[in-house]
C-alpha cells in the first residue's frame, strides 16, 4: 500500500488499484481515482463467504489526517476572505507550522517534528537575515532617535536591511576626505554594509545600498538585497520618500569592489570611478543589473547618462565595541 501511494504522489496517475489481506479473513480492495481537490480512495471490503459487501470513500487529504475529525467546509465569507489575505508578520511566517500538511507529516516520520531552534541554531527568516532577500519597495523604515537631518532622509530606504534600526555614522565625505579612490577605501573598507548618498550639480539626490560593504580586494561582491534609490522627484508616489530599484538577474555583480575606483553598483548602474582627470564624474545605465525606472528611463540621472557630482557621502552602521560586523572580508566562494 505504501509503495502504491508513493507512486500516486510522485507520478500523479489517474487511478491506482491494489489490495491487502486483513487479519479478519476479509479482503479489502483499494481504488484510487481523482476526487475533489485530492485523489479519492474507495474501499471495497468483502468477507470470504461473499455474504456482505461494504463500500466507503476517503479523500487522500483525509488519509493524511490520521484519525482526526473531518471538518466541514464552509463557503468563505467576506470577513474570512479578508483574514486569509492578510499578510502575516515576519514572526508569524517563521513560526508557522501546519501539522495537517501532508509533506510536513511525511518529513515528521523520518526527521521528527519541526523544532523552532534545531541544535540551538535560529531558523532562517527575513526578520533575522533581511539582507538575504530582495529589497522592499513599498514600505519604509521608521526614524531612529539618533538620526540627524541627512540620516533622516536616508532612513526610510533602509527598510528590511541590516541597518534598518541601527544608528548610522558618516564614514566618508568626498568634500572632506578627498575625491580619490585611495581616500574612499581608507574610510569605508571592512565596516560592513553601507549606503551611498550623492547629489548632482543639478540637484538630483540618489545613491545605493551595498549590503556587503567594501574591502578593496578587487572582488565583484554579489547581493540580491542591493538596491539603488532616488530621493523625491516625480517617481515618489503616494507620499513615498522616493523610489528604490532592485537588483535584477540574480545577486551577482551587485558591487564592483575595485581598489582603484570609488563606489560602483554593478559595472554600469551607478559608477563613480574617481579618476584623477575627472574625479566628480558619475555614470548610470539601468536595466542590465538594476531595474529601470517605471517609465523605462535607463539612468538615475534622467536623460543624462553621466553627470558631475556636488557631494558624495557614505554612511555605515554603528556597532558596539566587540560586536560582530558582517561582511568585512573577502568572499571567494559567495553564492548569495
What does this structure look like?
With 336 residues, the protein is an alpha+beta fold. Helix content is 17%, strand content 26%. The protein has helices spanning 2-11, 60-63, 78-85, 90-95, 102-111, 149-154, 174-177, 181-188, and strands spanning 16-22, 26-34, 39-47, 53-59, 168-173, 194-200, 205-210, 219-221, 227-231, 242-246, 255-257, 264-265, 270-271, 281-283, 306-317. Strands 5, 6, 7, 9, 10, 14 and 15 form a seven-stranded antiparallel beta sheet that branches. A hairpin with a 4-residue loop joins strand 12 and strand 13 (270-271). Mean pLDDT is 79; it is low at 1-26, 35-43 and 70-87.
Q: Strand share of the residues? A: 25-35%
- Sheet having the most strands: 7 strands, antiparallel
Arithmetic mean pLDDT: 79
The backbone outline, from C-alpha atoms, is globular
Report the helical percentage.
Answer: 10-25%
Number of strands: 15
List SSEs in N-to-C order. HEEEEHHHHHEHHEEEEEEEEEE
CA radius of gyration is: 29 Å
Descriptors for this entry?
336 residues, 4-stranded antiparallel sheet, 8 helices, 15 strands, globular, disordered N terminus
Give a concise summary.
This protein has 336 residues and is of the alpha+beta class. It has helices spanning 2-11, 60-63, 78-85, 90-95, 102-111, 149-154, 174-177, 181-188, and strands at 16-22, 26-34, 39-47, 53-59, 168-173, 194-200, 205-210, 219-221, 227-231, 242-246, 255-257, 264-265, 270-271, 281-283, 306-317. The longest helix has 10 residues, at 2-11.
Amino acid at each position: 500500500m505504501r509503495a502504491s501511494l508513493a507512486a500516486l504522489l510522485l507520478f500523479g496517475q489517474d487511478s491506482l488499484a491494489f489490495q491487502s489481506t486483513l487479519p479478519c479473513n476479509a479482503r479489502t480492495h483499494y481504488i484510487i481515482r481523482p476526487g475533489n481537490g485530492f485523489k479519492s480512495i474507495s474501499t471495497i471490503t468483502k468477507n470470504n463467504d461473499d455474504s456482505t459487501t461494504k463500500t466507503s470513500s476517503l479523500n487522500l487529504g483525509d488519509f493524511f489526517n490520521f484519525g482526526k475529525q473531518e471538518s466541514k467546509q464552509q463557503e468563505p465569507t467576506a470577513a474570512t476572505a479578508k483574514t486569509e489575505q492578510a499578510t502575516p508578520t515576519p514572526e508569524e511566517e517563521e513560526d508557522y507550522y501546519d501539522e495537517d500538511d501532508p509533506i510536513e507529516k511525511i518529513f515528521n516520520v523520518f526527521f521528527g517534528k519541526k523544532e523552532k531552534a534545531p541544535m540551538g541554531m535560529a531558523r532562517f527568516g527575513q526578520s533575522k537575515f533581511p539582507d538575504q532577500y530582495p529589497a522592499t519597495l513599498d514600505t519604509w523604515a521608521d526614524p531612529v532617535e539618533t538620526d540627524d537631518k541627512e540620516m533622516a532622509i536616508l532612513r526610510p530606504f533602509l527598510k528590511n536591511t541590516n541597518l534598518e534600526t541601527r544608528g548610522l555614522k558618516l564614514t566618508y565625505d568626498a568634500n572632506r576626505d578627498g575625491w580619490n579612490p585611495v581616500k574612499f577605501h581608507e574610510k569605508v573598507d571592512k565596516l560592513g554594509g553601507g549606503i551611498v548618498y550623492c547629489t548632482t550639480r543639478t540637484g538630483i539626490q540618489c545613491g545605493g545600498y551595498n549590503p556587503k560593504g567594501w574591502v578593496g580586494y578587487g572582488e565583484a561582491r554579489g547581493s540580491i538585497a542591493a538596491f539603488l534609490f532616488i530621493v523625491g522627484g516625480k517617481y515618489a508616489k503616494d507620499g513615498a520618500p522616493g523610489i528604490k530599484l532592485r537588483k535584477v538577474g540574480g545577486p551577482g555583480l551587485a558591487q564592483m569592489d575595485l581598489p582603484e575606483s570609488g563606489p560602483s553598483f554593478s559595472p554600469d548602474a551607478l559608477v563613480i570611478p574617481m579618476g584623477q582627470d575627472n574625479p566628480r564624474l558619475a555614470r548610470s545605465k539601468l536595466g542590465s543589473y538594476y531595474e529601470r525606472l517605471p517609465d523605462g528611463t535607463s539612468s538615475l540621472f534622467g536623460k543624462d547618462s553621466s553627470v558631475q557630482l556636488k557631494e558624495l557621502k557614505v554612511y555605515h552602521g554603528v556597532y558596539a565595541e566587540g560586536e560582530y560586523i558582517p561582511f568585512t572580508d573577502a568572499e571567494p566562494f559567495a553564492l548569495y
